[in-house]
C-alpha cells in the first residue's frame, strides 16, 4: 500500500478546477452521461497512467487509445462509481485498491454525444490488468509518465477538418483526440510537462481517420 504522492495531490487540486474550452462545454439538455478513470500508479518504470486500446470492431471510438470508462448507469450513483465499474469490466482492475481523488469538470464529445466526467484516482494497491472485455478492448497498458512527457514522443496532430491538437506516440499507440487533450491538460496542471515542439505537425493517418469516422 502506498500513499498519494505529492505530484498527484497537486495534479488533482488543479484538475478539479480545470477550465473547459468552449467547444467542449456540454450543451444544455443533451448528451449521455459517461465517465472515464484516469488511474495513476507507481509502476516498475516510475509513475504511470492506465490506458486501453479500444477494439477496432467497436461501435464508437474504434481502435483508439483511451482511458477505461463508459456510460453512467442508473445504479452507479455517480461518475466515480461508473468509472471504477467500467475500469474493472474492461481491464480487470480491482476497485478496492483504487483511491478516487477528484472528478474533473464535465466535457462534451460531439461524435458520440457523451457528457464525460474524467475521474482522477491513485492506484494505492495495484492489481494485474488485461483486456478483460475483448469485444471492446484490444490491449491494456500502464504507460510511464516519463514516456508521455518525453519531447520525442510528442507532436501536434491535424485532422482533415483543420482541427489540430496534442498527440503522443507511446508503447505502439497513437494517442490523440479527447484522450490526448485531457492528458496534455492534466500533465501541465500537475507540473509534469516539459517543453516540446508544438510546431511539429503530422496529419491524422488514414486508418485512424477511417476508424474514427464510423
Automatic annotation (TrEMBL):
Keyword flag Acetylation: no
Origin superkingdom: Bacteria
Cofactor: Mg(2+); Mn(2+)
Residue stretches making up the Nudix hydrolase domain: 30-165
Gene Ontology terms for molecular function: coenzyme A diphosphatase activity; metal ion binding
Keywords assigned by UniProt, alphabetized: Hydrolase, Magnesium, Manganese, Metal-binding
Keyword Translocase belongs to the record: no
InterPro entries: CoAse, NUDIX_hydrolase-like_dom_sf, NUDIX_hydrolase_dom
Biased composition (Gly residues): 68-78
Stretches for region Disordered: 57-80
Name this protein carries in UniProt: 8-oxo-dGTP pyrophosphatase MutT, NUDIX family
Source organism: Nonomuraea maritima
